[in-house]
Amino acid sequence: VKSIAVLTSGGDSQGMNAAVRSVVRSALYHGLEVYGVQRGYQGLLNNDLRPMDLRSVGDIIQRGGTILQTARCKEFLTPEGQQRGADILRERGVDGLVVIGGDGSYQGANKLSKLGIKTMGLPGTIDNDIPFTDYTIGFDTAVSIVVDAINKLRDTMTSHERSSVVEVMGRHCGDIALYAGLASGAETILVPEVPFDLDLVARRMQENFLSGKRHSIILVAEGVGSGEDIAQGITQRNGIEPRVTVLGHIQRGGSPTHNDRILASQLGDFAVRKLMEGDSGKACGIINNELVVTDIDKVVHTKKPFNMDMYNLASRLSL
Ligand code: F6P
């Protein structure tokens, strides 16, 4: 490869900028030409590619969001859109593409690689829902935001001896709820991967208050349902009225943690090196602290396994 492009796509995540910086600087270090695609696949279809130099990615490692901006692009879901995207890259003389994003972005990268474009996927999503990597870029920051919010909620809940329902992101994956719940001592963690019984949740809450607990935190991944519905269901069962907090897009903003910056820096450089070795159609990840590649086709057809041991541990420790 002589010339590569990089884009960010789907929901943004903290650390995407650090990943873009790493891709651009590693490519330039190895003497490649690099283009930044503005607004994900939409920008690709608009031929919105601009050359990146060393300074174009200065002062961004610490910033949330993505300087390349992002979009969810309907047209790119069609075979015609995908073919046009591949044609545009060829016309611009680009022979390698690094896609930073989540599941939907990987589907696009998979299609482009089947159309002959050398592609590498980097897992950029707060959800941690990509298989064949222990962590995605942005997950660590999102979890810290949730933990910080729960610390604050605990103060006021304890003063008033109240219960709190906190709704966090994660449509199909409960990892944000799981990790933040374990780290913050939540009483109950509700995730889409594990069926639950609201009667039991309500009874446990009541018993805990009777046995001297002064607050109770229920963490709900949005994939389970709304925090408001869960709170109402609890009130109907035990008469307690939990206060509801929906953390929403706050979880996707702010400066990335050092873990996310380091992961993004390692993966960005790894993707460039893999492209230079002639690899294509691969997703980059980290497993047991080692950088790995997996066929992107396999990644998009696999569901990430849920960590039941961690879930059970959180439950045992929250008595
Ligand atoms: O996939 C990342 C994510 O933040 C999910 O957790 C959430 O369900 C979704 O994106 C929200 O999407 P949007 O920003 O388009 O509302």
Automatic annotation (TrEMBL):
Key words of the record: Allosteric enzyme, ATP-binding, Cytoplasm, Glycolysis, Kinase, Magnesium, Metal-binding, Nucleotide-binding, Transferase
Gene Ontology biological-process entries: canonical glycolysis; fructose 1,6-bisphosphate metabolic process; fructose 6-phosphate metabolic process
Chief location of this protein within or outside the cell: cytoplasm
A cellular-component GO term for this protein: 6-phosphofructokinase complex
InterPro entries associated with the record: ATP_PFK, ATP_PFK_prok-type, PFKA_ATP_prok, Phosphofructokinase_CS, Phosphofructokinase_dom, PKF_sf
Reaction(s) catalysed (UniProt annotation): beta-D-fructose 6-phosphate + ATP = beta-D-fructose 1,6-bisphosphate + ADP + H(+)
Pathway assigned in UniProt: Carbohydrate degradation; glycolysis; D-glyceraldehyde 3-phosphate and glycerone phosphate from D-glucose: step 3/4
One protein family per Pfam: PFK
Gene Ontology terms, MF aspect: 6-phosphofructokinase activity; AMP binding; ATP binding; fructose-6-phosphate binding; identical protein binding; metal ion binding; monosaccharide binding
Ribosomal protein in keyword set: no
Catalytic residues (UniProt): 127 (proton acceptor)
Swiss-Prot/TrEMBL cofactor(s): Mg(2+)
Domain of life: Bacteria
Identification of the protein by name: ATP-dependent 6-phosphofructokinase
Classification lineage: Bacteria, Bacillati, Bacillota, Bacilli, Bacillales
Gene name in the database record: pfkA
